[in-house]
């Protein structure tokens, strides 16, 4: 039986689809069978047909009609972190390992960059990869004693306020003991994988992937004690949405799976029994990935590193200096400050939410409103007159 590889490409990105075609070709040449989700295959077919992608055609097996997830050996993801989270959701019912090639912005979960696509495919063909297990969490929503939702997450479960103008009142707990209650924008319950994502933005610690732990990070808590917590993977962590302000909340898992939380809802998080499997080609330490992806300064390090490591660090520092200089030149020349280095490229399929403009009230409008509200002089006198009844 031929070895099957599932190709999961970001179909909103031309580059990702073109790389998917390249990977498919290389796999076929090596005698492997590429498989695609029917929807993804249709999009790629249409893009070829419309001349958006350059290829003679697309020869892949269709998942669920010609093969199932259980017939597939590995999933290759061509996209950014969002694509990995999407792929993990799609293959959740199986224990298929995923190997990601970064065609997104950050690509923290990716194993290879676009330039290494050939090498990544060769590693798949030669079975030259290791499978790393990433802890996932099991997420339950209870209203009273009724289980209203049951889901999971690779990065995090975030309990957030639904009304932007109100705080969410919560009490957080560990192992059926209350820890603290406060008003906040939300609470993030994350895995070590998610520690570099939303939890990181909330001031949580970075946890190395091989550590087994769960994090609880309050977001903008109006409280003197609102420190991030790191708890045992055997614990049950919980957030109760308090009824005292009658504010509802919303639960998001990996920014993909969501459920509304009425006041009084309880969210319980435990370690999942099914981890997510990520296939790794290079054994680059997590420290190095962290430094590279977050572009951390490491000048002055005197530890034991090889000459090639040192050359790579120096090259990275040179690039950073060039970029800094370039940003400075741009900033000086145009009087602007660059604030979003990772998201300068426009994102496909992102439609800004519809907003209603806030009416601007001018001084003249205000005076007019006061005039309308002020009772006319005779009305005022009439109000003062004693009433017959
Ligand atoms: N304020 C925040 O930081 C914030 C807010 C909402 C969601 N998120 C994150 O976005 C994730 C969904 O990702 P998406 O790509 O679909 O949405 P997206 O396109 O809005 O991207 C969110 C950002 O988070 C990064 N990211 C995702 N997982 C990561 C990880 N494990 N380590 C480091 N960075 C990571 C992505 O690279 C991207 O830059 C959620 O799981 C959540 O962690 C972050
Ligand atoms: N094939 C697809 N079809 C539709 N949407 C997709 C597809 N693949 C990914 N997405 C969605 O597109 C969004 C952006 O995904 P992508 O993987 O490019 O992440 P990114 O945010 O651009 O990169 P990074 O996460 O590395 O910064 C995510 O919400 C993801 O779920």
Automatic annotation (TrEMBL):
Pfam families: NAD_kinase, NAD_kinase_C. Residues 365-389 are annotated as: Disordered. It catalyses: NAD(+) + ATP = ADP + NADP(+) + H(+). NAD(+) binds at residues 81-82, 86, 155-156, 166, 185, 196-201. Its EC number is 2.7.1.23. GO terms for molecular function: kinase activity. It is found in: Cytoplasm. It is an enzyme of class 2 (transferase). Residues 375-389 have a biased composition (Basic and acidic residues). SUPFAM superfamilies: NAD kinase/diacylglycerol kinase-like (SSF111331). The keyword NAD applies. Its cofactor is a divalent metal cation. The active site is at 81 (proton acceptor). It comes from the Bacteria. Keywords: ATP-binding, Cytoplasm, Kinase, NAD, NADP, Nucleotide-binding, Transferase. Involved in the regulation of the intracellular balance of NAD and NADP, and is a key enzyme in the biosynthesis of NADP. Catalyzes specifically the phosphorylation on 2'-hydroxyl of the adenosine moiety of NAD to yield NADP. Belongs to the NAD kinase family. This is NAD kinase. It comes from Yaniella flava. The gene is nadK.
């Amino acid at each position: 039986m031929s070895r099957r590889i599932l190709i999961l490409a970001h179909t909103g990105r031309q580059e990702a689809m073109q790389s998917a075609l390249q990977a498919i070709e290389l796999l076929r040449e090596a005698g492997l069978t590429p498989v695609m989700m029917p929807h993804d295959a249709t999009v790629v077919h249409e893009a070829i047909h419309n001349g958006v992608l350059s290829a003679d055609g697309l020869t892949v097996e269709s998942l669920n009609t010609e093969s199932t997830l259980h017939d597939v050996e590995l999933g290759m993801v061509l996209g950014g972190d969002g694509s990995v989270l999407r792929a993990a959701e799609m293959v959740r019912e199986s224990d298929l390992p995923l190997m990601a090639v970064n065609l997104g912005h950050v690509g923290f979960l990716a194993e290879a960059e676009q330039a290494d696509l050939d090498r990544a495919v060769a590693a798949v063909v030669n079975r030259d990869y290791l499978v790393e297990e990433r802890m996932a969490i099991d997420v339950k929503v209870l209203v009273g004693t009724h289980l209203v939702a049951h889901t999971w997450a690779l990065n995090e479960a975030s309990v957030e306020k639904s009304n932007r103008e109100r705080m969410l009142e919560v009490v957080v707990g560990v192992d059926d003991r209350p820890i603290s209650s406060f008003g906040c924008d939300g609470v993030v319950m994350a895995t070590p994988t998610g520690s570099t994502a939303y939890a990181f933005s909330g001031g949580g610690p970075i946890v190395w992937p091989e550590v087994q732990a769960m994090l609880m990070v309050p977001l903008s808590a109006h409280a003197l004690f609102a420190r991030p917590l790191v708890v045992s993977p055997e614990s049950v962590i919980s957030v109760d949405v308090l009824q005292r302000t009658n504010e509802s909340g919303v639960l998001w898992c990996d920014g993909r799976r969501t459920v509304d939380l009425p006041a009084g809802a309880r969210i319980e998080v435990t370690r999942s029994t099914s981890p997510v499997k990520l296939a790794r080609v290079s054994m680059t330490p997590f420290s190095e990935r962290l430094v590279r992806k977050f572009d951390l300064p490491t000048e002055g390090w005197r530890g034991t590193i090889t000459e090639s490591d040192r050359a790579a660090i120096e090259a990275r520092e040179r690039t950073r200096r060039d970029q800094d200089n370039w940003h400075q030149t741009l900033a000086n020349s145009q009087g602007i400050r660059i604030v979003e280095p990772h998201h300068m490229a426009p994102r496909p399929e992102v439609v800004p939410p519809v907003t209603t403009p806030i009416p601007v009230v001018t001084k003249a409008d205000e005076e007019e409103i006061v005039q309308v509200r002020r009772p006319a002089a005779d009305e005022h006198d009439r109000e003062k007159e004693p009433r017959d009844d």
